[in-house]
Amino acid sequence: MNTGRLFVVSTPIGNIEDMTFRAVKVLQSVDMIAAEDTRHSRRLLNHYGISKSCVAFHEHNETSMTSRLLNELQSGKSIALISDAGTPLIRDPGFQLVRAAKTQEIDVVPIPGCCAAIAALSASGLATDRFLFAGFPPRTQSARQAFLQSLAKETGTVILYESSHRIRECLGTISDVFPGTRQVVIARELTKQHESIQSVNVATITSLFENNPYAEKGEFVILIEGHNPKQTDQTIDQQCQVMLKRLLDECSLKTAVELTTELTGAKKKQIYQMALQLKKQN
Ligand code: SAM
Q1: 3-state class (DSSP) for residue 126
Q2: CA 234 to centroid of ligand 1, rounded, Å
Q3: How far is CA 269 from the centre of its chain?
Q4: What's the N-to-C CA distance of the chain in angstroms?
Q5: Torsion, Cα of 276, 238, 158, 128 (10° steps)
Q6: Is 12 close to ligand 1, i.e. is its CB under 6 Å away?
Q7: Which residue from 12, 61, 110, 193 has the fewest beta carbons nearer than 10 Å?
Q8: CA 202/CA 179 separation, integer angstroms
Q9: What gap in Å lies between CA 101 and CA 108, rounded to an integer?
Q10: Atom of ligand 1 at shortest distance to CA of 161?
Q11: Rounded distance from Cα 219 to ligand 1 centre (Å)
């Protein structure tokens, strides 16, 4: 008997109309749909007139459901895997199932569509020739710090997911770890009514929510400009020194430090030390 096929089907990340014709056709034609949350997906399926039976497939039953779904595929049934939003397996369940299906030489067919990381990258204005998707940063401060530190020298654009519960803390840790000059793009509520895509630099990142408490609500993709190996710490220091020297001729130490910090995004403490040093030399 021929084995069935496993379709990995992308669904919208907010706007229900972001569904491909092919995705609808596949969902209408398969024998069974494996959905992360069957109740959540029912709204989408109803919208497209799909009345197929759904089974729950989520992180808590992935292991047991993988063997059940493999049996169905072996017996010739075709299955579509969907998650609550976007592309299954991208920070969503499905990896065990796809890997097991590949091992058993079952056809796995991607039905591409939405993915928050790629949507955000495409509109970010940051480099797209090389990027690193790193998923959700860890929840605790020390683990998050170490995780971000490990990404600080990545030369491609770094893409992170974050929820509204931790966005403030996460941006705070980014400002501790990355140089102030690095550009950051915060893509919020993509494809939804309150979509926003803001570009800032690390030095000003924490001021983002200052006058707008609603800005931290919703779902987020954070993109961080890659490290430029040509711009070494030494060249940044040299640029700061030149600027400081010039400003110290024109204004007070306090103002010169404030302006240099603002314009270069360097750490204030470091600029202050540099200014004291320059004053001494004069
Ligand atoms: N599989 C999904 C994909 O393809 O993008 C990702 C699922 S992951 C569990 C959910 C996270 O994706 C959210 O916490 C958020 O970081 C990001 N995300 C999903 N939808 C989003 C949207 N509309 N706008 C911004 N970020 C979104």
Answers
A1: coil
A2: 38
A3: 31
A4: 87
A5: 150
A6: no
A7: 193
A8: 7
A9: 7
A10: 16
A11: 6
* 110 and 138 Cβ atoms separated by less than 8 Å: no
Mutate to test the pocket of ligand 1, among 114, 163, 195, 220 (most ligand atoms within 8 A of CB): 220
> Could you tell me the pTM of the whole model?
0.86
Instruction: Name, in order, each residue with C-beta under 8 angstroms of 269's C-beta and a sequence gap of 6 or more.
Output: none
Measure the CA–CA gap between 282 and 268, rounded to whole angstroms. Answer: 21
Nearest to 161 by CA among 134, 143, 183, 181: 134
Q: Ligand 1 within 6 A of 117 CB?
A: yes
d(C-alpha 76, C-alpha 78), whole Å:
7
* CA 161 to ligand 1 center in whole angstroms: 7
Residue 221's DSSP bridge partners are 161, 187
Determine the 3-state secondary structure of 74 from DSSP.
helix
Going from the Cα of 117 to the center of ligand 1, the distance in angstroms, rounded, reads: 7
> Tokens standing for 245?
């020297």
Q: Which of 15, 16, 65, 75 is nearest to 36 (CA)?
A: 65
Selection from 53, 2, 54, 44 nearest residue 23 by Cα = 44
What is the full per-residue pLDDT of the chain (282 aa) written as tens digits? 799 999 999 999 999 999 999 999 999 999 999 999 999 999 999 999 999 989 999 999 999 999 999 999 999 999 999 999 999 999 999 999 999 999 999 999 999 999 999 999 999 999 999 999 999 999 999 999 999 999 999 999 999 999 999 999 999 999 999 998 899 999 999 999 999 999 999 988 988 887 777 788 999 999 999 999 887 666 777 778 878 888 898 899 999 898 888 877 778 888 899 989 888 887
Structure tokens, 190: 């993509």
